[in-house]
Specification:
With about 240 residues, this protein is of the alpha+beta class. It has two domains: about 170 residues, no CATH class; about 50 residues, no CATH class. The chain is built from three helices and eleven strands. It has a six-stranded antiparallel sheet with strand order 7-6-9-4-1-11, with no helix packed on it. Strands 2-3-10-5-8 form a five-stranded antiparallel sheet, with helices on one face.
């Protein structure tokens, strides 16, 4: 068993939805009613891990809209990737996408995302410890398992690390340089058609949680990309 470092990180402020995730996440269990779990932006997540010398599969934090404030109770190497966000250590601005060395007692504070994305990621050298459920440490809040007790982080939580980690290496830098993502043509087709709906006063989305691959329907309840199919997108009578 890999030794853990108890209470290596203390959550001072959690943000609205900060969860433990890993890559490739929990896959292959649709047949028993468990949807895929894992980071929404897996490229940014994997690059965060590589920046601190972790395997791409190590567990880290996924931040939605606004980040947490984390106090490190031992020295560590961290990286913040994903959507542009203000990041500070003890109030001093620090960059994203690079390994940062924090000392015992330092506070990493991650602000709110802007218009260029809604999710950011934090990796800590050594990786976060969490219970393994169905082959993954990823949090599945609807099922209440994975991550930290199957829920988003709250102030006062204490996170453990799977060892001290070693920071970025020449091998991890080579692997990071080889990662890239291809965005297929037509990925923005939904934006022009949904803009009017999203900017109307009083618009509400009946969604309380992130669900990878969830469909967002137009007011007529038809999906944007194609007509209704037999896969659960028909309008209810």
């Amino acid at each position: 068993m890999t030794a853990t470092t108890p209470g290596a990180v203390t959550v001072i402020r959690s943000g609205p939805l900060t969860t433990i995730q890993d890559w490739p996440g929990r896959v292959g269990y649709w047949k028993v009613g468990v949807p895929p779990s894992g980071p929404m932006d897996d490229l940014s997540f994997r690059l965060a891990n590589l920046a601190v010398g972790n395997p791409e599969t190590a567990a880290g934090l996924e931040i939605t809209l606004m980040g947490p404030a984390l106090r490190f109770d031992r020295p560590a190497v961290v990286a913040v990737t994903g959507a542009p966000v203000p990041v500070t250590v003890n109030g001093a601005a620090v960059p994203q996408w690079v390994p940062l060395t924090v000392a015992e007692g330092d506070v990493l504070d991650i602000g709110s995302t802007g218009v260029l994305g809604m999710r950011a990621y934090v990796a800590v050298a050594g990786g976060l410890d969490a219970a393994d459920h169905l082959g993954s440490r990823s949090t599945f809040t609807m099922g209440r398992f994975g991550g930290l007790d199957g829920r988003a982080l709250v102030a006062g939580d204490r996170l453990e690390l799977l060892g001290a980690g070693r920071g970025a290496t020449s091998d991890s830098r080579r692997r990071a340089a080889g990662l890239h993502q291809h965005v297929a043509a037509g990925r923005d087709r939904g934006a022009p058609r949904s803009a009017g709906v999203l900017h109307r006063r009083g618009h509400r989305r009946p969604v309380r949680d992130r669900l990878r691959g969830a469909l967002q329907l137009r007011p007529d309840r038809n999906p944007i990309d194609r007509p209704p199919t037999a896969m659960g997108t028909q309008r209810r009578r």
